[in-house]
Amino acid sequence: MKICILGTGFAALTAIKETRKRLPNAQIQVIGPCKELIYYPSLIWMPSGLRQADDLRIDLHNFFNRQRVEFIQASVTGLSADGRSVQTDQGEFDNEGLIIASGGRFIKKLPGIEHAITPCEGIPAAQHITDRLKGMDSGTIAIGFGGNPNEPAAMRGGPMFEFLFGIDTLLRQQGRRDKFKLVFFNPASEPGKRLGDKFPEKLKVMLAKKGIESHLGHKVVGFEANKVKTEGGELDADLILFMPGMTGPAWLDNTALPKSAGGMIKADNDARVKGMDKVYVAGDAGSFEGPAWQPKQAHAADIQAKTAAHNLTVDFEAKGEKIQIKHELICIVDTLSHGMLIRRTESGTLMLPPCRLMHYAKRFFEGWYLRQYR
């Protein structure tokens, strides 16, 4: 059997491992633009120098050899034949089973958004933030995030809280926090509620304690070189960090795959693309059934990829039971010196107060997680 996996991110790599474990004799072909993993969760540590760019780039050559997969360096441009054929800029590739794990993309339609840095676009963006901070003697730094109004789950707010609190800590460590004003902006009146009902109130306390101003409950309508424009007024800023909402990959328009209202691939709760045979999706490209708080994060992508690999195996072997995605949000919101552990499931939410141990736990997890891919 020939299985194709699209992508080289968290969901794709987990799908590779799980598929190989369950189907040891399968021919696995991986299609992606680059044979490396970028460890996005640690981009937050680049401005402080705790991590350098090369620390976060993982060459996947050895991992692919160990997993006995064929890597095709190409960019996907479309799908046809009910998912059995993948079109790329390097040709067309057929499969008998497909797992889409190629990620989503940020919605960058706001006027003047080129004046804002989007941290999770990768290492160049984090390096840009690092360089800008080093070049500033004083000023106002505005940090915020938005969403996809048609896809509540398609937002990535956690890293923005980490950049906000991390920059605050860094400036304090450098003895120059008093020369800067930090402003957090968000269109929601209670941002972070997806992390738990108690988080918005805890956020207010943390902002006040750290002297961070806020501009909440007003839709962002655009940016200028030194300004954030919202329906509730304008914010002057010397540096703007903004994470827009997310939508599906650009090539999705060149397919017959079902799309959600937010432009992502519609999937059942077993990670199967709705109405498709042996076509699954995991990670940021998918729109999954389940709770409104389900996250767009690496941990969720891993869970979805394991579910997809398991169920694709059931399709091929015609035995065993299919499983459902067990939605879980788990993260450590890091402040550069402390970390707040948050875990949310359909049973409830666990939220621990910030402590130094969780900061080091996040650093330990990075090393443990990446060891399997080196």
Describe the structure.
- The protein has 2 domains: 2-104 and 248-317, FAD/NAD(P)-binding domain, CATH 3.50.50; 108-245, 3-Layer(bba) Sandwich (FAD/NAD(P)-binding domain).
- The protein is 26% helix and 28% strand.
- The protein contains 7 helices and 24 strands.
- The protein has helices at 10-22, 61-67, 123-134, 158-173, 199-210, 298-317, 356-371; strands at residues 2-6, 27-32, 36-38, 57-59, 69-73, 76-80, 85-88, 91-94, 97-100, 105-106, 139-145, 180-186, 213-216, 220-224, 227-230, 233-236, 239-243, 246-247, 265-267, 279-281, 286-288, 329-334, 339-345, 348-351.
- Helix 1 packs parallel to helix 6 (298-317).
- It is globular, with a radius of gyration of 21 Å.
Can you lay out the helices and strands and say which pair or pack?
Elements: E1 2-6, H1 10-22, E2 27-32, E3 36-38, E4 57-59, H2 61-67, E5 69-73, E6 76-80, E7 85-88, E8 91-94, E9 97-100, E10 105-106, H3 123-134, E11 139-145, H4 158-173, E12 180-186, H5 199-210, E13 213-216, E14 220-224, E15 227-230, E16 233-236, E17 239-243, E18 246-247, E19 265-267, E20 279-281, E21 286-288, H6 298-317, E22 329-334, E23 339-345, E24 348-351, H7 356-371
The figure for the number of domains is: 2
CATH homologous superfamily descriptor of the largest domain? FAD/NAD(P)-binding domain
Q: Name the beta content range.
A: 25-35%
If you compute it from the alpha carbons, what radius of gyration comes out, rounded to the nearest whole angstrom? 21 Å
- Decide which structural class fits the backbone: alpha/beta
